[in-house]
Design a protein that fits this description.
Blueprint (H helix, E strand, L loop, with lengths): L3 E9 L6 H16 L3 E8 L2 E4 L2 E5 L25 E5 L5 H13 L4 E5 L11 H14 L9 E4 L5 E2 L2 E5 L20 E6 L8 H13 L5 E6 L5 H11 L5 E4 L4 H9 L3 E3 L11 E2 L2 H9 L3 E3 L2 E2 L9 E3 L9 H9 L3 H16 L1 H13 L2
Parallel strand pairs: 1-2, 1-5, 5-6, 6-7, 7-9, 10-11, 10-13, 11-12, 13-15, 14-16, 15-17
Antiparallel strand pairs: 2-3, 3-4, 8-9
Helix pairs in contact: 1-10, 4-5, 7-9
Length: 368
């Protein structure tokens, strides 16, 4: 039986683009506590490591090796006993392996799981530095099976690094998200939210908007919220296509401001380029938030929770073709919004909420 759990995320909680991941941790912790499992979590911010809200370790000013050596600074955890450890994967390093070795030796009966954000991930690491970091991971990750019992994974693989996978995908805390209260307009307003990377495929939509406008139609607007490595390229594509008048760029938003953007949207923009890193199954947080808020959306890959099969989703091919805005417009016009919003909300509560997902996970773990 699992009575006590620890979740470890090596992410900076103070970076606005990580807000979705922070919400993920909070949702998992809240749900596990609700199941009667006392749960703590580890996260960092400004080179300070926190256990829940308590400062456990702080780096010296100007430290350049904090992220690489992150797991060297978690020795305080080894003095405590947990039945379950869930560790978000951020590539294998010597400090990570050493910490896992100590963790296993101190807690031989505990269940240690890796939460795999995406797999395969080789194509995410580009440039000389990226290839070096991936090379270190590649040379070391085979050793993980000595210490890890399972990998939480939303894809098709039954085994990764010689470790069995456990079917698991992103969830959300539905109660924390307001169902949208849309206003009406003569235009179709699209909303794209993300920590923008090349595999989000937003360029496919921008090319589609250009082609749609080229046909003489102008009843389309796109709002892009978020930042990320791909943002400069996105801005350049918008300028090159001369569609600035129809695309509104916004930085990271949350809370009440984000609620207003959802109320003023008609169609959400999901991930459109996952095939670029050879990933077949999608589990994007944005798709889950769109569903909980009642915003129909477009996407391209198949979803771990079968969102791509639902009537409130329009699926496009997994290729480099431009998004056909005429199809999106037809999809939008056929939606009965007063019926679709509660239907989407109900689907999210039954299939996507952290309470349902964590209960299923605990049942799976106890069957190991």
């Amino acid at each position: 039986m699992i009575h006590k759990a620890l979740i470890v995320y090596r992410i900076d909680k103070n970076i606005r683009a990580n807000a979705g991941l922070v919400n993920k941790i909070n949702g998992q912790v809240r749900s596990l506590n609700g199941l009667g499992i006392r749960t703590d979590y580890i996260i960092h911010g400004n080179q300070t490591i926190y256990k829940n809200s308590e400062v456990m370790w702080k780096a010296r000013q100007g430290s350049n090796s904090f992220k690489w050596n992150f797991f060297n600074f978690l020795h305080f955890i080894l003095q405590q006993q947990y039945d379950l450890y869930i560790i978000r994967y951020g590539l294998t390093t010597w400090p990570f392996l050493h910490w896992l070795k100590l963790l296993r030796s101190k807690n031989p009966e505990s269940v240690i799981l890796i939460d795999m954000p995406t797999y395969p991930y080789r194509l995410e690491w580009k440039g000389i530095r990226g290839k070096i970091i991936y090379g270190i991971d590649f040379s070391l990750r085979g050793k993980l099976k000595k210490y890890v019992d399972g990998i939480l994974h939303s894809g098709l693989e039954h085994e990764i690094f010689g470790i069995p996978t456990i079917g698991f995908s992103n969830g959300i805390q539905v109660s924390s998200l307001l169902a949208r209260n849309p206003d009406k307009t003569s235009e179709m307003r699209m909303l794209a939210i993300g920590k923008w990377q090349y595999w989000h495929g937003l360029d496919r939509l921008l090319r589609g908007i250009f082609q749609y406008l080229k046909s003489g139609k102008t009843d389309i607007r796109l709002t892009i919220i978020g930042e990320g490595p791909e943002m400069a390229k996105i801005v350049q594509i918008i300028k090159n296509l001369q569609i600035e008048q129809f695309v509104h760029l916004v930085g990271s938003e949350a809370g009440l401001a984000l609620n207003e953007y959802f109320d003023k949207a008609d169609i959400g923009v999901g991930t459109l380029g996952l095939h670029r890193k050879r990933v077949k199954i999608d589990a994007s947080l944005k798709h889950r938030e769109y569903t909980a808020r009642g915003l129909p959306f477009i996407m391209s890959a198949c979803d771990a929770d079968n969102l791509h099969l639902q009537e409130f989703v329009l699926k496009f091919p997994e290729d480099e073709s431009s998004i056909d805005l005429n199809k999106v417009m037809e999809f939008y016009k056929n939606l009965k919004m007063d019926m679709i919003i509660p239907k989407m909300r109900s689907f999210a509560e039954r299939h996507l909420d952290w309470n349902a997902k964590m209960k299923r996970l605990i049942n799976q773990i106890e069957e190991l």
